[in-house]
Amino acid sequence: MSNNSDLFSKCYRYEDAKKLQAMGLYPYFRKITASTGNNVITNGKRQVMIGSNNYLGLSHDPRVMEAAKDAIDKYGTGCTGSRFLNGNLDLHEELEARLAKFVGMEAALCFSTGFFVNQGTIAALVGRSDVIYSDRENHASIVEGTQVALGDTIRFKHNDIADLERVLKNSREKYDGALIVADGVFSMSGDILNLPPIIELAKKYNCKLYVDDAHSLGVLGTHGQGTGHHFGMQNDVDLVMGTFSKSFATTGGFIAGKADVVHYIKHKARPFMFSAAMSPASTATALKALDIMETETQHIENLRKNSAYMSKNLKQLGFNTLNSNTPIIPLLVGDDATAFAIAQYLVEEGVFVTPVVRPAVPEGCALLRTSYMASHTQEDLDYALEHLEKAGKKFGVLGVPENTERLNKIAFDNFGVHATL
Ligand SMILES: Cc1ncc(COP(=O)(O)O)c(C=O)c1O
Question: Can you give the pTM of this predicted structure?
């Protein structure tokens, strides 16, 4: 008997997105027709952008834009091949040397996306007899890396040291090498990895430690050098991953660590070897952004000031912001339908914000993910606050005591968050 079926049948049956489109609530692929960084135009209307990862606001810094244009003039628009073959620029190597120094490692290697860094590095390092210990809230690209790697993966509860020790105790001796991997700043809940006890466990159980600093670079540490620097423990992290798609205002990513380890990854990570090199414009953008991070602290100071202002005011309004203590400030709204409806309302009111629903968060834990930038003006922030308050009230997230209680319970049960108000 044959089980033959049409491979595409699942596509014909897939209705989720179409239903949202029919209701006018589809929140994805909003067409941006112009941008100043802080503000964008979609559907002919202006919105304050509080849904981007442009933490330092450098995507529209004239010096950064000029550097990208100069690189196009000198090298053209693309490298048209792998770094291995015809695509290796002096700019790539300059950026790698500068990044290694910035994060305090011996060497760094740039890939054409951050996703590839996680996928390629984890798969290159973790062999059949090795194991990965991965935080449950890690980014999808880490999950992808763990799935491609030949070794086993054991997940532990989000930022939960007791749970990590429990799984280490139960399993570590069955494996050869081991890698603990976690985001430095978690991309949805905006909390910071509890690094010091993880370092202790990594030493105690002979594991290497890999920190994904995608949302920490430009955000944590005096100049934005990342999570290790934030805790003054950068020498105890074995591998630092970074992406250029956030504070560095372009695309691409890197891995940094000991020179021999980076050399190995350079010759074994398939997404590095078999994909075209970062473009000249992106590489020059990242270099100029790095110059600015190293020499100007006003951007990170503004970012901290703006994030603290929004965090304080959003909490005062009564939003549940989970354990966020970074520029990523989630607003817990509960069910997916409410998240879609609020996001649509806000976009129409001039605030660009993105809903986060399952499977990115557990069922019933939908969020609005808001995030702030160094370049936001007081006027931008107050405009966003005014409309977030209106939306919160209109959709019953604010001002309804039983809903507040229900959301606090969801936050406690799913994220271990104690109500702060
Ligand atoms: C935590 C984390 N790691 C890795 C990535 C992947 O980075 P990129 O956008 O450069 O592919 C992202 C981006 O969404 C991220 O949030």
Answer: 0.96
Q: Is 323 in the pocket of ligand 1 (CB under 6 A)?
A: no
Ligand 1 centre distance from Cα of residue 222 (Å): 22
List CB contacts of 396: < 8 A, sequence separation 6 or more. Answer: 338, 403
Give yes or no: residues 274 and 345 share one domain.
Answer: no
Q: Which domain holds residue 177?
A: 61-295
Tell me how far the alpha carbon of residue 182 is from its chain's centroid: 11
**Is residue 421 a part of any domain in this protein?**
no
Residue 203 catalytic? no
> Could you tell me the CATH number of the domain that includes residue 341?
3.90.1150.10
> In angstroms, rounded to a whole number, what is the distance separating the alpha carbons of residues 384 and 388?
6
pLDDT tens for 346-395 read: 999 999 999 999 988 889 999 999 999 999 999 999 999 999 999 999 99
Nearest 5°: CA angle at 391, between 386 and 394? 125
Strand order in the sheet with 351-352: 32-35, 39-42, 45-49, 351-352
Residues 6+ apart with CB under 8 A from 270: 120, 123, 124
For 57-91, the pLDDT digits (tens) are: 999 999 999 999 999 999 999 999 999 999 999 99
269 lines ligand 1 (CB under 6 A): no
Q: Tell me whether residue 387 is one of the annotated catalytic residues.
A: no
Which of 59, 134, 141, 187 is catalytic? The answer is 187
Is 420 part of any domain?
A: no
Counting atoms of ligand 1 from 1, which one is nearest the CA of 251?
Answer: 10
310 in the same domain as 223:
no
Angle at 408 between CA 403 and CA 413, to 5 degrees: 125
User: How many domains does the structure of the chain reveal?
Assistant: 2
Paired with 208 in beta bridges are: 179
Q: Are residues 84 and 202 in the same domain?
A: yes
Tell which of 295, 326, 346 closes a domain.
295
Identify whether 241 is part of a domain.
Answer: yes
Bridge-based pairing of strands 253-257 and 107-111 is antiparallel
Concerning whether 158 is annotated as a catalytic residue, the answer is: no
What is the three-state SS of 257-320? ECHHHHHHHHHHCHHHHCCECCCHHHHHHHHHHHHHHHHCCHHHHHHHHHHHHHHHHHHHHCCC
At 116, list the tokens.
């590839």
> Is 113 touching ligand 1 by the criterion CB < 6 Å?
yes
